[in-house]
Predict the 3D structure of the following.
Amino acid sequence: MSDPQPAGHVAPSSRDGFEDKIALITGASRGIGRALALSLAARGATPIINYRRNEEAARDTVAAIERLGATALAIRADIEHVEEIDAMFEQVKDRFGRLDFFISNASASNFRPIDELKPEHLERTFNLNVRAFVVGAQRAARLMDRGGRIVVLSSYGSLRTFPTYANLGSAKAALETWARYMAVELAPLGINVNALNPGIVESDSSAYFYATGRVASIDTVIPKIPKQRLATVQEIADCALFLLSPASEYVTGTVLVVDGGLTAVAPPFPSDLPAS
């Protein structure tokens, strides 16, 4: 059998495109953000771990990165507040002078029926998700003097509706639209902007959502997913790595859906057929 690779082809190293890169990840002390930080560190990048409250988890993430032989920095900032976003980017500028990757991962909201949402619920969700991404991307782009990558984490709630998720789902849909507009305006600067839309991920966040008592048990949901399981945080982090890598150079202004087929299906479901 002939060699499938062209003559002279050398397979890229897993470190290619990541070595010496500076990456700021919001909400990186746990979950997808932590998995991505560790993956970047293993490839020679320097992750900056943003966290809001859990200093112990942030320190643990930094320690795990240092055990890989890499460097990391933890920055405490509540990105619901613009002045704290500004202070975070000032620290990045003072320490590194530039930025290569900005991953807007942190997210929070409240889960209520629409009739129970109060103005403060709407404002806080907007500020923490949409405004934090837009302001963060503005600040990040100013530090990307060599080009760069911006990735924002969305949710399948931007595409499908389910109980108590209207506030966050609509914010996630806004993030995807912002990513498209940013991609067009920042392309001349060599900056790619994309959104990553995970399905249900086995994480603290999904555990919290399904423990609210306002939605059906996760056990009723998993059988409806074509892959018949939840995603792992590492699987989502791996897709973020693609969007940060040289392999995605021509990918910008898009939404990468990583949901095990969840948004590809609709009722009637085979599992709802009566027993024969």
Q: What stands out?
A: The domain at 22-200+237-258 is CATH 3.40.50.720 (Rossmann fold). Residues 195 and 255 are 5 Å apart (CA to CA).
